[in-house]
Amino acid sequence: MVRTRTALVAILTLLFAGVSFAMAQEPPEKEKRREFEGVGIEAKHGQTIPTDLLFRNADGEPVTLDRYFDGEKPVIINFIYHECPMLCGLMLSGMTSTLSNMSWTPGDQFRVLSISFNHRETPEIARAAKDTYIDRLGAPDAADGWHYLTGEKAAVDALAQATGFQFRWVEDQQEYAHPTAWIFLSGDAKITQYIYGMEPKASDVRKALVEASNGAVGNPLDQVAMYCFQFDPEANTYTADAFNLMKIGSVITIFVLGGALFFFWRRESDDLRAMEDGDPLNDIDDLDDPDALRERLGSSQPHAT
């Protein structure tokens, strides 16, 4: 009995030690989750960002954000940092790929601001990145519309907060944990859309730009597309709006039926008019005049005297 009791105590002691060790040594998944606490996007649709924030462009010149918002052209903001070991390089490569698949060029229909959220980075680093990705894009003119900015911590934090971009420094890894997103703004600096990921479809980017410009950029087909498609945050893409498609279908049906009825009405009217024109009595004003009747009918009989 004493041996049994001793064995039980030993087993419980080992179990308690094992549980304590497991609690002290959290699984890697839990540690990883902790690294990403407070990291993500807090969407702020409809809010206007401060445009008086001071940054430096790739040439080292001090610039405020209002330089890039003219009240008309939409603007895309993407946050990156150039010393990122992997994710930011993939995002810039994805952005280059998406832009290369568009018929629009940064600077013409819209602007792009690639802003470093690492306040320690310099304009020289931004310049090197700009030269690299403009060269990959193969559109030298895009250099006037794709801007690379760096800034002090206060400006970076203020812009990140205004756009809902949440990131944090991971001391153990010596790198930033951060989300990836394309943030679309109107020409007056109002946030209109977020598309998450590194390489969204060119068609989605075009729709988001048309939406951000409130129809100021694009052609009539783009306006129709914006009416027929709505952005689905869960799918992270523009999907067909069934209700609006039904309304358009109803209008088209009415026009088709109306056109068909008008066509048949015109055809019937033309047939009736042709029948009237072919009536030999149609142009005789006085049907009681025998001479007029004979002349119209081509009668060769002699007139009665």
- Describe the main β-sheet briefly: 5 strands, mixed
Estimate percent helicity. Answer: 40-55%
Morphology: elongated
Distance between the termini: 158 Å
Low-confidence stretches: 7-32
Per DSSP E runs of 2 or more residues, the count of β-strands stands at 13
Judged by helices, strands and strand pairing, the structural class is alpha+beta
Counted by DSSP, the helix tally is 9
Q: List the strand order in the largest sheet.
A: 6-5-4-10-11
String of helices and strands: HHEEEEHEHEHEEEEEHHEEHH
β-sheet strand percentage: 15-25%
Mean pLDDT: 81
Q: Work out the radius of gyration.
A: 37 Å
Polypeptide structure, described:
With 305 residues, the protein is of the alpha+beta class. The chain has nine helices and 13 strands. It has helices at residues 2-24, 28-35, 87-100, 123-137, 153-163, 202-212, 220-228, 242-277, 290-297, and strands spanning 40-41, 54-56, 62-64, 75-80, 111-116, 146-149, 165-166, 168-170, 175-177, 181-185, 191-196, 229-232, 237-240. The termini are far apart.
Characteristics:
two-stranded antiparallel ribbon; 13 strands; alpha+beta; elongated; single chain; 305 residues; five-stranded mixed beta sheet
What's the short version?
With 305 residues, the protein is α+β, with helices and mostly antiparallel strands.
Q: What is the topological layout?
A:
Layout: H1 2-24, H2 28-35, E1 40-41, E2 54-56, E3 62-64, E4 75-80, H3 87-100, E5 111-116, H4 123-137, E6 146-149, H5 153-163, E7 165-166, E8 168-170, E9 175-177, E10 181-185, E11 191-196, H6 202-212, H7 220-228, E12 229-232, E13 237-240, H8 242-277, H9 290-297
Parallel strand pairs: 4-5, 5-6
Antiparallel strand pairs: 1-7, 2-3, 4-10, 8-9, 10-11, 12-13
Helix pairs in contact: 3-4, 6-7
